[in-house]
Specification:
365 residues, alpha/beta, Beta Polymerase, domain 2, 7-stranded mixed beta sheet
């Protein structure tokens, strides 16, 4: 088992009561790390829940109060936006599944606490994708800011279409037809996710993934994404989802079984390993033993530890060392390697590195 992370933010998330002993220099570092990780609001909520708000020095308190205010406003906006999306897609011949952060808010889950948002993620069957996109475009959402190459790349290879941004409200929708690209090494059956999705109270026609599936999707998102500026925030999502779901008897057995069914055992192995490292997430030893069949070899595991203990830490100088840039590059290459075979990956990386920069329109002086 990996030793617990020694970063100040991870220690604070594990033991919020320790803030009573923090010096002003530690508060300064904590605020900077939490802001970089997108965790100021979640940390503020944790302090409030543990009746620790009075322990925050006045010079630091306003950072947390501002983040909490923003998170509360975003949650109201997400609920309202989901109603607009459902209205736009009212003629769709299937329920609308909401993913990730918006799903946590819609379902009233603990993982919604202090959660900040960049977009709303939706999942529809592939055969409904064109109809859903057309309906959203009629309601004001349009693809923007991407090159023609990137648009073709999304539509041909990815598990989602190019992001759609509303022309008036600037809200962004990521419309998925799967949770991994068709070219990826692993192929979770999206139909299985649809079959077990559960309805959301108060939002007719809107569903969220089943508890095990939302955890597996969160794990897949983290460990198949090459750029993780908010990796620790995503781990705290997983931590909260796991703690909430584990109250249900039989949850851990169902989670491991479902990971096997969806070909996501390796992602779950990494998710639990690093959630324990950073957040001391309570995972039964029997679950770790059950996932050993999905564990990489000793050399690969040691390499992944050196990569992910750096990449998932806050993107702040106080959490970095001389090997952090190499670890971030390695995570980026690994994610692309998992997403597509070499005959597609090499031309794609070549285009992004050498051709795309030449095609960018220069800004006006």
């Amino acid at each position: 088992m990996l030793p617990l992370s020694d970063t100040l933010l991870a220690r604070t998330l594990r033991t919020p009561g320790s803030i009573a002993r923090y010096s002003m220099s530690e508060w300064d570092v904590l605020v900077r790390q939490a802001r970089a990780a997108g965790l100021l609001a979640r940390l503020a909520h944790r302090f409030r829940r543990n009746e620790l708000t009075s322990a925050i020095p006045a010079a630091a308190r306003w950072h947390f109060e501002a983040a909490e205010t923003l998170a509360a406003k975003q949650q109201v906006a997400v609920r309202w936006e989901l109603q607009q999306v459902r209205r736009a897609l009212r003629d769709l011949d299937c329920p609308l599944i909401v993913l990730k952060g918006a799903a946590y808010v819609a379902a009233g889950l603990p993982a919604a606490e202090g959660r900040l948002f960049n977009d709303i993620d939706l999942l529809v069957p592939r055969e409904q994708l064109a109809r859903a996109e057309s309906a959203l475009m009629l309601a004001g959402w349009h693809a923007s800011g991407l090159s023609e190459y990137d648009k073709r790349y999304y539509r041909r290879w990815m598990h989602e279409i190019p992001p759609l941004q509303h022309v008036q409200r600037d809200t962004v929708i990521d419309l998925h037809h799967a949770i991994l690209p068709e070219t990826a090494r692993y192929h979770p059956d999206t139909a299985l996710l649809h079959r077990r999705a559960v309805p959301v109270d108060g939002l007719p026609g809107v569903q969220v993934l089943a508890p095990e599936d939302r955890i597996l999707h969160s794990a897949t998102h983290v460990f198949h994404d090459g750029e993780l500026p908010h990796g620790l925030r995503d781990l705290t999502d997983l931590d909260l989802l796991l703690r909430d779901a584990s109250d249900d008897a039989g949850f851990w057995t169902r989670l491991v079984t479902r990971a096997d069914e969806l070909q996501l055992g390796r992602s779950l192995y990494y998710a639990l390993r690093y959630a324990r490292h950073f957040l001391d997430t309570p995972v039964p030893d029997s679950v770790i033993v059950a996932l050993d069949v999905h564990a990489p070899g000793r050399v690969t595991r040691a390499l992944m530890d050196r990569i992910f203990t750096r990449v998932l830490a806050p993107d702040h100088a106080s959490c970095a060392d001389a090997y952090t840039p190499a670890a971030r590059l390695a995570a980026f290459v690994r994610a692309h390697w998992l997403r597509m075979p070499a005959y597609l990956l090499i031309p794609h990386l070549f285009h992004k590195a050498f051709i795309s920069p030449l095609q960018r329109t220069p800004k006006a002086a």
